[in-house]
Specification:
This protein is of the alpha+beta class. It contains 11 helices and 12 strands. It starts with a helix and ends with a strand. A 12-stranded mixed β-sheet has the order 1-2-3-4-5-12-6-11-10-9-8-7, with helices on both faces. The mean pLDDT is about 90. The chain folds into 2 domains: about 140 residues, Gcn5-related N-acetyltransferase (GNAT) (Aminopeptidase); about 180 residues, Aminopeptidase. InterPro entries: Acyl_CoA_acyltransferase, LPG_synthase_C, UCP018688.
């Protein structure tokens, strides 16, 4: 299908995403004042690429990512540099592929507002679908200091585990299986309420992290041990455009004894993330969607989020179809 797209989209440079640098991918999100969870090269090269073919498109309109999945395609959060050219770019899809609608995934409130408030884009019909209603953002300083009675339990957990019994190792080819073991046990005993598809995506992503990002200064990918037993994993990164912001991409801790875990490991893993975030120079940390599952919601709210971000999918179509 990509050969057909290349032939029909004349004047557009199309490359497999594997041939594009991390900095080039991250530049797509350079205008964003508050980075949403998916806006990074780490997401594009891992979770987004699961069972998909991903390409980088560049032309006079700007740049975007094209994802081919299940004989369909969609765009991922375009960087628009010329409004008129972007309109022509969209029109080209409709004309060349006889499409009536075009899906764009994972756009921020900032992107949506910019599009809606620009009169040049009023020629399109726009369907807006909320994707994430409450991405939680933490204050790193608050959660490394942990002052006051409200954080007393978390301070005790940090002191018990991080100062005494836990140690963390950077992930590489020699200990990747420990990471996958933690994920498997977490899914079996704690994450069973989530879909198998999510587990498979996370497994795929962790392998990609080890392949692409291990050793990068702005990426922390580590596995935590108690007496050499792997009990938690953390994967977080510093934003390449707004260096005050980071994203906690995956965190798993085995709290249940039947999983070979220890109560409090998950909180200890979070405390370690906050410590690492401060060492990386971060002020804010995005922990993704607050979600509907009550246990997860309450756990994240205990960390006193200072901001909630939204993201959307939009469907662009011609008016008066």
């Amino acid at each position: 299908m990509i050969d057909v797209i290349k032939n029909k989209l004349s004047g557009i440079d199309i490359k497999p995403i594997s041939e594009v640098s991390l900095d080039t991918i991250d530049a797509l999100f350079a205008k964003e004042p508050f980075p949403i969870f998916e806006h990074s090269s780490y997401h594009v090269l891992s979770y987004l690429s699961y069972e998909s073919k991903v390409f980088f498109l560049a032309g006079e309109f700007g740049q975007t990512i094209l994802v081919l999945r299940d004989d369909n395609f969609f765009l991922f959060s375009p960087l628009v540099k010329d409004d008129k050219e972007f309109n022509q770019f969209i029109e080209c899809f409709f004309e060349q592929f006889n499409y009536k609608k075009l899906l764009i995934q994972n756009i921020s409130q900032f992107w949506l507002d910019s599009f809606v408030n620009d009169p040049i884009f009023s020629i399109w019909n726009l369907e807006v679908h909320p994707r994430s209603k409450e991405e939680v953002v933490y204050d790193v300083e608050l959660l490394t200091e942990l002052k006051g009675k409200e954080f007393a339990k978390l301070r005790n957990t940090r002191n018990k585990f991080l100062n005494k019994v836990m140690h963390f190792n950077a992930v590489n080819s020699s200990n990747l299986e420990d990471v996958l073991t933690v994920l498997e046990n977490w899914q079996r005993y704690q994450g069973f309420k989530y879909s198998k598809n999510r587990y498979e995506k996370e497994q795929f992503s962790l392998r990609k992290f080890a392949e692409y990002f291990a050793g990068l200064d702005r990426f922390c990918f580590e596995v935590g041990y108690v007496e050499e037993v792997p009990l938690c994993i953390v994967a977080m990164h510093k934003n390449n455009n707004n260096v005050d912001f980071g994203t906690l991409y995956i965190i798993k801790g085995l709290n249940k004894s039947e999983a070979g875990g220890i109560h409090g490991i998950s909180d200890a893993a979070y405390c370690y993330c906050f410590k690492k975030a401060k060492e990386m120079g971060l002020k804010y940390l995005n922990d993704g969607e607050l979600g509907h599952e009550e246990g997860t919601r309450q756990h994240k709210l205990r960390f006193k989020p200072v901001q909630f971000l939204k993201s959307y999918d939009v469907v662009i179509g011609r008016k008066n179809l």
